[in-house]
Specification:
Blueprint: H1 5-29, E1 41-47, E2 56-65, E3 68-72, E4 77-82, E5 89-90, E6 95-99, H2 102-138, H3 143-175, E7 178-180, E8 185-190, E9 197-198, E10 203-209, E11 213-220, E12 230-237, E13 244-252, E14 262-269, E15 281-288, H4 290-293, E16 297-300, E17 305-307, E18 310-317, E19 320-325, E20 327-332, E21 335-340, E22 347-351, E23 362-369
Parallel strand pairs: 1-23
Antiparallel strand pairs: 1-22, 2-11, 2-15, 3-10, 4-6, 4-9, 5-8, 6-7, 8-10, 11-14, 12-13, 12-15, 13-14, 16-21, 17-18, 18-19, 18-22, 20-21
Length: 374
């Protein structure tokens, strides 16, 4: 065996094994890769509901009288007597409260004394004028002296009229110590008690006139204009479950409440029952006409995707997301009122709108019905 023969056989064997390994690996090396499977994006969604019968809003209210008066004393003083309680029925002229009249009585006596004093001076001035006229006619008094007597008489009469007016004013002050009812009604509130000092003009009693009743509600600023478009107003009462009354908006405050930023509105009631009392809680339901509101659909604010061309939403059809432009009619708290671009029953994305692409596959986490706000 020549030298190196064994090594050559080993090299040949290794080459054969390597060639076989290459032939086995070649098919797998040139096999195309498996295509990547796109995982559908999980999104939240809702079903659009377009109201074809208009919109309905419900507000909580409180029953008030058509005419309510905040009664107050016209003078300062200490409350001596309180003759009524909350819920008391009163008649015109009835005394509701009384102030201590001691100071006013003394003032009247001072005024009476002052009136008697100027009355005496007026009589004296008249007597002097009569004597001066007699002397002037006989030549015993000059014209200047006679005119001076006339001026004194006129001044005394003017002083008497002034004192009489002051006495009347003091007498009125004494009468103002009695707080009386101007009309028949019911006492709905009392803010003071006997023994308390009050200033003139401070409200002490709220008197509700018998007769018409109405409900006061608070309306958000974005719904104030809709009050005039209400086609029907139904009012129900928690204490009277079987009573549902028609109503109409009588007045709307032109100024918003400084704290709640809502506008107060008064709803007059048609044929209220006699057992409807002031202060009862109520529920006022306003229905708007379908003509203007029929095409509106309320969607969450998070569902709106803002593009350079305006607002849009992602519509889901057969698991594919597509972008569609919408027309916004207004905003209502955390919702958007859409006037065009959406159809009833369509499914839209409500969360994650900024992560979607046109034509992307999506998987619905949940399909929520449209929230109807009362």
């Amino acid at each position: 065996m020549p030298p190196g023969y064994k090594n050559k056989k080993l090299y040949v064997a290794r080459a054969v094994v390597l060639s076989i390994a290459v032939l086995i690996c070649l098919p797998s090396c040139f096999h195309p890769p498996e295509p990547l499977v796109e995982e559908p994006l999980l999104v939240r969604s809702m079903v659009v509901r377009v109201d074809a019968n208009g919109q309905r809003f419900t507000y909580s209210g409180e029953v008030h009288g058509r005419y309510e008066s905040q009664l107050a004393f016209r003078v300062n003083g200490k409350i001596l007597v309180r003759n009524v309680d909350v819920g008391s029925l009163v008649q015109p002229g009835e005394i509701l409260m009384q102030l201590d009249p001691a100071d006013s009585q003394l003032s009247v006596r001072v005024g009476e004394a002052a009136l008697r004093s100027v009355e005496s001076k007026m009589k004296l001035a008249k007597d002097n004028l009569v004597r001066a006229q007699a002397l002037y006619e006989t030549g015993g008094l000059s014209k200047a002296e006679y005119e001076a007597a006339m001026d004194a008489d006129n001044a005394a009469e003017a002083a008497y009229q002034q004192a009489a007016a002051q006495l009347n004013q003091l007498a009125n002050q004494l009468q103002y110590c009695d707080l009386t009812a101007d009309y028949a009604g019911v006492v709905s509130a009392i803010s003071v008690e006997a023994g308390q000092l009050v200033a003139a003009g401070t409200p002490v009693i709220t008197l509700v006139q018998e007769g018409d009743r109405e409900v006061e509600i608070s309306v958000p600023e974005n719904r104030v204009d809709g009050l005039s478009k209400a086609t029907s107003i139904k009012v129900s009462f928690w204490a009277l479950p079987n009573v549902i009354l028609d109503g109409w908006v009588r007045e709307v405050s032109p100024v918003a409440d400084s704290v709640a930023r809502t506008f107060k509105a008064r709803v007059s009631l048609v044929d209220p029952p006699t057992n409807l009392k002031a202060g009862m809680t109520s529920s006022v339901e306003l229905n708007t006409s379908a003509g203007e509101q029929a095409s509106l659909a309320a969607i969450p604010l998070a569902a709106v995707y803002q593009t350079g061309d305006g607002p849009a939403v992602w519509i889901i059809s057969d698991g594919i997301a597509s972008l569609r432009k919408i027309q916004v009619a207004g905003f209502d708290r955390d919702q958007v009122n859409v006037s065009s671009g959406l159809n009833d029953g369509e499914v839209i994305v409500t969360a994650g709108v900024n992560k979607l692409l046109e034509g992307q596959k999506v998987r619905l986490m949940e399909t929520l019905p449209q929230n109807t706000e009362n």
